[in-house]
Amino acid sequence: MVNKLMPGLGLLRHYERGWLRSDVTAGLSVAAIALPVGIAYADLAGVPAVVGMYSAIFPLLAYALFGSSRQLMTGPDAATCIIAAAALGPLAGGDPERYLALMVMLSLMTGLIYIVAGIARLGFIANFLSQPILTGYLNGIALIIVAGQLQKLFGYSGEAATFFPKLTEFVHNVSDVHLPTLALGMALLVALFVLRYFAPRLPAALIVVVIGIGLVMTLGLDQIGVAVIGSVPAGLPVPRFNLFDAAAIKRLLGDAAGIVLVSFTSGVLTAKSFAQRNGYEIDANRELIAFGAGNIASGLAQGFPVTGADSRTAVNDAMGGKTQLVGVVAAGSMLLILFFLTGPMAYVPTAALAAVIMVAALGLFDYAELRSLYDISHRELFLSLATTVGVLILGVLPGVLLAVTLSLLWLLAVVSKPHDGVLGRVKGIKGFHNLNDFPEAETIPGLILYRFDSNLMFFNVDYFCERVRAAIAAADTPVEWVIVDASSINVVDITAVQRVDALRDELAARGIVLALARVKLSLNRFFIEEWTKKHNQLYAGYRFHTLNSALRGFSKRHRSKTRGKQKADDG
Fold this sequence. Notes:
6-stranded mixed β-sheet, 8 strands, 64% helix, Transcription Regulator spoIIAA
């Protein structure tokens, strides 16, 4: 039971001593990246730096107990932070205390939704956003993040809230840049790129932040206008739950659900990819509960919503981390810094954080996926780009709704007009095959063998009927029977049943039999048993277990009809 409820604890109970060195090394490496990233993302989320530290530390401990991935590291995520900031800004009304209280509530609500979804076994929501549309959404987020850091990197004041106004503001303020801030920011940005390219195993973000602290303290840059984050309180967070605003909580519910959808989709993809790389499987429903525990831990620690962090997970994997103990070591290391080394953090330049955030955002932008889509499917490339443009124009939160809407529209477009075909026999190949694929396939005069490669539902049953009528109209000889190969139909609804019955009656009036072959018995689960028995009995003569038995039924009836016609002619 313990292993099922807490996979991490179950694994630690059977811990092998040989793993310890790798886990400690990986944990220290993760901490070296997670701490500066947490501070940087706190700025992105619009909260004090120490809140980013809380959000980087405590979710790791929760996930280490409840998570099924041995490599995944949870913590602040650029997309999650900017979604949270976009949600809370209008509700806080410029009040920092209310903003922090709302952030805590948002984290707790996100965690609760995660856990409820896990208990309800909704792990399949990870597949709810198609990969091209998720890529487009995250690309839009990346561009918004980069635009939002320009004022901090160049040292001018700005008030624009959305992407295109931010770009316009940047153009107007280029002449008013603060040169010391710009020089420091650009130098650190270049250093970050150089380190990531030539020494990818080093904690580049930590090195850049330490260099920034050293330059500020040595040269007194804070005295000439270079912005720094200011004092960071040491020690554990003090829980404060002073917001019980029913209207605000109601507003936050939808925002929390949007965060769950986007953050779980991206987070579980990271977990799955590293699990596959290391030869084991993860449980998506268990991951929902683990992410929920991480967000509740963050909320109780006064932090913001978190998810799986791909960059820190990659560092863990590269350093040979074996188990969830890596997260415990990383959290413990950062806790020591929180207790004893917060003094120098007051001198962290915001330009250094801007550089860290911009590089992270550029890493979030997936150009390789766009290039792949260009080579594979222009239609899905268009959907991805449309999502990106929609996020840039509409904003972050409406972008979530746009991404979901485009996914649904794409799904409906695919299943409303699925692949189908008239079938025939091909010499030398067993079975029945589509005439479009094998024009030489032989058909039986008077018979159409038709296959519909999809479920039959209210949104595509009219298309099904149209295609059957079109096949009859295109037949070379008068049609006596239409046999539908139903082997690919796994789901039906009452609308589809009614329309197919109506089509059967319509064709019967024209002297054409509509028969079904290879109908799955599992389709009965969608209807009441008594009705199913009656309905099946009604058309028992035109339901066949195999295509061959359906063909024999046609041949028998065809011969009987031919003999009857011949007798009538003789009489």
